[in-house]
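Translate structure to sequence.
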């Protein structure tokens, strides 16, 4: 999600203030962010067997 926010700022889709706000929201967790009315989240799934990590 951080890379997406940074790329949106780099392309001029969002300004620096919005970028900082979104990055703070990500750091605070959970990994859910709303951009342009669309809520995006990141979920890491781990296998049941830790030896497969």
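Result:
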């Amino acid at each position: 999600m951080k890379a997406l926010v940074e790329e949106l700022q780099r392309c001029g889709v969002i300004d620096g203030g919005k970028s900082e706000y979104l990055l703070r929201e990500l750091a605070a967790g959970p990994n859910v962010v709303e951009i342009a009315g669309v809520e995006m989240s990141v979920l890491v799934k781990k296998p049941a067997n830790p030896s497969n990590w």
